[in-house]
Amino acid sequence: MDFEAIQTTIVAFVRQNQSWAPFIVAALAFGESVAFLSLFVPATVILIAISAFIGVADLEFWPLWLGAAIGAATGDVVSYALGRRFKTSIYRLWPLSTHPQLVGKGERFFCRHGVWGVFIGRFFGPARAVVPLVAGVFGMQLPLFMMVNLASAFVWAFALLAPGAGLSEYLGW
Predict the structure, then answer these.
(1) Residue closest to 14 by CA, chosen among 73, 68, 78
(2) Sequence spans of domains, the chain
(3) What subcellular compartments does it reside in (predicted)?
(4) This prediction's pTM
(5) Is 60 within 8 Å of 50 (Cβ atoms)?
(6) 169: how many CB neighbours lie within 10 A of its CB?
(7) 72: which residues sit within 8 A by CB, 6+ positions away?
(8) pLDDT by residue (tens digit) across 6-16?
(9) Cis amide prior to 163 (ω within 30 degrees)
(10) DSSP string, 28-97
């Protein structure tokens, strides 16, 4: 099954089972935010497609926004916890071991931007899952990580879903 077929299937399922939409959005955001899963779950395109149905299929924006934010924040906590627990030895595990440039970029990004790196990293594809892992490896304090993680997750979810919701309403779909 190719990515296009998976995307079509998920979007169709959401359209037919609207009560599951916030949970599906949360699962997609979670998968995209966990360091190892994010390489296999390119959910941004699916989330944008689902957001386009907010106006069309009478999906409510706020539950989807909350689901996406909670899923993304939870995924980052998992990545952070893995980094805290395993330190740099986690870099030797597949698939990170086959993408050392991704880890290097994540480390440089975090070292350059610190706390703001966790916030800003949420908005850049591959960095989204690696920066929280690096924050854990480098021992960022949990309360500080959680504040930045939650703030960035809620902003990211809004920025990802609102344009699709507004566009469908603007176009009168």
Answers:
(1) 68
(2) 3-170
(3) Cell membrane
(4) 0.89
(5) no
(6) 13
(7) 29, 30, 32, 33, 122, 153, 156, 157
(8) 778 888 888 88
(9) no
(10) HHHHHHSTTGGGT--THHHHHHHHHHHHHTT--HHHHHHHHHHHHHHHHHHHHHHHHHHGGGGGGSTTGG
